[in-house]
Amino acid sequence: MAKILVTGGCGYIGSHTIIDLIENNFEVVSLDSNIRSDARMLQAVEKITGQKVLNYAVDITDLNALKEVFEQQPDIVGIIHFAAYKSVPESVAQPLSYYQNNITGLLNMLQCVKDFNLPNFIFSSSCSVYGNASELPVKETTPLERAESPYARTKQMCEAIIQDFSAANSNIKSILLRYFNPGGAHHSGIIGEIPQPGAYNVIPILIDALEGKRAQFAVTGNDHDTRDGSCIRDYIHVMDVGNAHTKSLQYLLSNKNELNCEIFNVGIGQGVSVLELIEAFDRATGRSLDFKIGPRRDGDVSSIYADYGKAKKMLGWTPKYDVNDILSTAWKWYQSGYKLSD
Fold first, then answer.
1. I need a surface site. Which of 127, 164, 170, 266 has the fewest CB within 10 A?
2. DSSP secondary structure string for all residues of 125-143
3. Residue 113: how many other CB atoms lie within 10 Å
4. Which of 151, 251, 321, 334 is catalytic?
5. 136: exposed, middle or buried (C-beta count within 10 Å: 0-12, 13-18, 19+)?
6. Which residues make beta-bridge pairs with 39?
7. Residue 76 pairs with which residues in a beta bridge?
């Protein structure tokens, strides 16, 4: 078994990716400070897969602590780097915190990659790097526009850092995965996205609003240049996102890469407006969401969705699930009470 380090392994996408890695015969070690995640996510992973995953509760901005992890795990052959702050509104309010955590964390990881000669590196990027894209659907070659938030700017900067690093270190292979809007939960209902204070991921917000745990759901603007005035996004099931990371590792380990730093979009390839998402949500829950039209939100782009043809051709990856699957699995996870193993 190839041993893989997953940073942010106790987070939403990281934990679901670990499930897919284990199911594809990888050995996984997690690194997560648990500052913004729940260590019990790995207990849920064990319940699903039967495999216990070791977690190092290390802050990625602490280079010396990171080095100790790699010294204790000398047989790691690949890294998937998720660990980062990710709230757009919070990044607008606290930009220095985002630059400190996201960029310093990446620099420390790459320093360890170099010092310990770790040949395979996959970076968790985002469609936010495209800004208000000049063409739809966006391709990997679509020019990057101005970042609409400090969070998005950290992703643009991190991508540039990895590309420069790769140019200077030809023995290290990297993949940048630009995924769109992950949602849903594992089909078992045992694990899913736990709503975080200040987070803005739309599906947990929809559920909390339906249950009266939040204020009335607000559609952030109905004056965008879209078919119904609300923002259009490409929603991708979290298990499809996880599988894209597995396929990327298999691609690198098989030496199929043409360049030592490659970029892939990960999305369904279809745009869904917020108002259309609410209609699908009503169908998934069998209930009717009360919502209002609110003002635009700082940092939002109006419309973005993916062309994932490159990932399909080169990685052999295609999404298995659609928006209805995303919403139905998220609703199943909610009905479990967001209950993780104690």
1. 170
2. EEGGGG-S-SSSSB-TTSP
3. 21
4. 151
5. middle
6. none
7. 3
- pTM value? 0.93
Beta-bridge mates of residue 313: none
Beta carbons of 227 and 272 less than 8 angstroms apart: no
Distance from C-alpha of 59 to C-alpha of 71, rounded to nearest angstrom: 16
Q: How many helices (H) and strands (E) does the chain have?
A: 12, 13
Tokens matching residue 208: 């909390």
On whether the CB atoms of residues 218 and 289 are closer than 8 A, the answer is: no
In which element (H, E) is residue 276 found?
helix 274-285
pLDDT band for position 341 (cuts 50, 70, 90): low
Active site residue 151: yes
Q: Which residues of 287-317 are buried (b: 16+ CB within 10 A; e: fewer)?
A: eebebeeeeebebbbbbbbbbbebbeebbeb
